[in-house]
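Students often ask why we bother encoding 3D structure as a string. The short answer is that it lets us treat folding as translation between two languages. Here is a chain of 296 residues written in the first language.
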Amino acid sequence: MKLINKLSFLVISALVFAISGCDKTKLYDIAVAPSQAHFVGDKVQAYPVRVSPIAAYEITVGTTDVAAFDREVSFNVTSPTGATAGVQYTLGTTGNKVIIKGGKALATISVQGILAGFPALRIDTLIFTIRMPSLKPSIFLDTVKLAIGDICGEANPFTINSFLGAYANSIETFGTGAPYGPYTTGIATVTPLTATTATIVVTNIWDNGWGPISFTLDWSNPLSKTARVIAQAAIPGSNAGDLNPIYAGQTVAVRPFATGNLGSFLSCTGTLTLRMQLGVTGVGFFAGVYTVNMKR
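And here it is in the second language, the structure alphabet:
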């Protein structure tokens, strides 16, 4: 017990000495992080240059602090793939410099792709590196790689008629059953409805003599393109015995799920995922989801 008391006294004495050793009237140095420039966002970025009109792409530059005056950030641009300024792209800045305004911490480097410089399948890489003399480059993101060229993004314009034709690698599932395929389905016709919707007619679904089934494609939200089956009371050539033997000789009905569960499609890969609810004409519908994944 006495030893504990002695140790407590020593600790308290040390604390009192440390506190009394500080002079509140004296100015002490405070460590301040140096001003540094860095890129903002992903280290690897992508800029599709495929269909006119082409909007400029912006690479963001930031600083580790905010100052009351304008500051200059210099950068280099190189291309290991041979992209050339004035042929594949132009920059919206002169002298490879951007100004971060006083009171701000961000600025942008504008890159304008040139469509004529990117024939089909050409993709280049531009490497942006912050350099001296300017604000000191930060070590954590002083370089950005920009892929530019014939890069497909779902937000890019596309031609709906490109979906016409055969899909030899279609695979389907019904409920919890095993996948079936690959087999060939096809899109026989495409009928535009509006600027962002169209009807497609799909052939050989189920791969057993069923007649065509129609779907509405909607790309009003280009990042969430949907495919919705159009209800059909009786599919010509179908046999509900394919779904359950007790319904042999009756036709198959199809409809979208009331709870949603829409299909989708991708313009970049030209693939479709069709979802629908199958039933027996005049009888009712099965709970399982019928999915057809269409691929060339």
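Translate back mentally: The chain has one helix and 20 strands. Keep this in mind for the problem set.
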